[in-house]
Amino acid sequence: MHALDEREQSIAKNLAQVMDCTPGSMYWKDNEGRYLGCNQFMVKTAGLNSLDDIIGKTDFDLWPDNAEKIQANDQYVMESGQTIFLEETVKIQSGETMYFTTAKSPLKDTYGNNIGVIGNSLDITKLKETENALKAAKEKAEASNKAKSEFIHNMEHDIRTPFNGVWGFANILAEREEDPEKKEFLTGISNCAKELLDYCDSILEFSKVEHGSIPVMEKSFKLFDVVDSAIKIESVAAAHKKLDFSLDYDENLPNVIQGDPYRIKRILLNLLSNAIKFTNEGAIKTSVILENTHTNSRSCIIKFIIEDTGIGIPKDKRNIIYERFTRGTPSNQGIYKGQGLGLRIVKQFVTELDGDIHLTSQTNKGSAFTILLPFRLPLTDDIIDES
Fold first, then answer.
1. Which strand (E) or helix (H) includes residue 264?
2. In the predicted structure, residue 8 carries a pLDDT above the cut 60
């Protein structure tokens, strides 16, 4: 009998050691919510001196601010007979609030009756504080970004109007001026104003895109007219650099398609403008090809390819060219001007149109952007929305 007592005492001692090594608070209560025992971590959390101090106490004695909710959880465990997992919050004697992830199970007697609750609560206070700090920082950053976008969006008229005025009046004065030197100065002012206006337009368009102010359209339009318009706009800049500027338009393309002509044109303008900017000699070719059609679903996929013989894009830049404000060369080198927004807008517009964009490039040999876009086919070519 003495040996059995020693063995039971040894088991009890080992069990106590196991509980004290268990991470977090381990405890058990009777069906009235009175504590029957716990580990040392629980004693420390409750601000008590020993295990004996917690016996007979309830959650209303230890953390009255949170006791009602804790006991409601205990009651559910005893009534349902199920183990539950949840987060619990307690305000300890020091006034500090602690957060726990808790597992609670029914405490049963030898006959299988529920006589209380046994629980294990892991301290996640530091994790919760970090989570809350990250959430607050995220909300602050989002609010700041939204405020910046709204500021630019709201200032659109005030920014563009004076630029347009300076550019327009400088042009008029330059045309009327007969003195060569003055005419040169006025032309310089006009060119600078136009450059600032172009910068302004790019930033404002990017702001609209980021702000979601340009809804995706679904309208009937003549694809050739949109492509031809973009080509004509950029042909002046290409001619100025004496570049071969060509269009290969697939004769099998449908006359009228349904989609977003604004985004198509902006995609082409940005890619053509970039191609001209980074090509000093050679050629720029635009190809528009009917990739395939699905008669049953009245849909088609059209491929747009913009090829140039320019400086190309280095391998280490290809993964970041679609990020905003990213440029191939720093602005302070003054070689190629721009804001680093064009390809970002292209990428976003292609994504919004459920398309794909691919790049092939060789340094000092040229680049080719290939875009695949899906379109709907209208029932008749006669129904064209020109608005």
1. helix 261-277
2. no
> Which three-class secondary structure state does DSSP give residue 370?
strand
N-term to C-term CA, the chain: 101
* Token pair belonging to 322: 């679609």
Could you say which of 176, 211, 246 is where a domain stops?
211
Query: CB pairs under 8 A, 24+ apart, for 96-101?
Result: 97/125, 98/45, 98/123, 98/125, 99/123, 99/124, 99/125, 99/127, 99/128, 100/24, 100/25, 100/124
Query: What's the sign of the alpha-carbon dihedral 213, 321, 229, 385?
Result: negative
**236-252: per-residue pLDDT in tens?**
888 888 999 999 999 99
Residues 14 and 118 in one domain: yes
Could you tell me which residue, 372 or 317, shows the higher pLDDT? 372
Last residue of a domain, one of 211, 236, 260: 211
Number of domain units in the chain: 3
- Cβ 26 vs Cβ 42: under 8 Å: yes
Residue 50 per-residue DSSP state: S
368: closest CA among 304, 324, 277? 304
Do residues 86 and 69 make contact, with C-beta atoms less than 8 angstroms apart?
no
Instruction: Summarize pLDDT for 251-267 with one digit per residue, the tens.
Output: 999 999 999 998 899 89
What is the mean predicted confidence (pLDDT) over 69-93? 93
Q: What is the mean predicted confidence (pLDDT) over 48-63?
A: 92
195 has a pLDDT exceeding 60: yes
- Dist CA 87 CA 102 (whole Å): 6
- What is the pTM for the complete model shown? 0.51
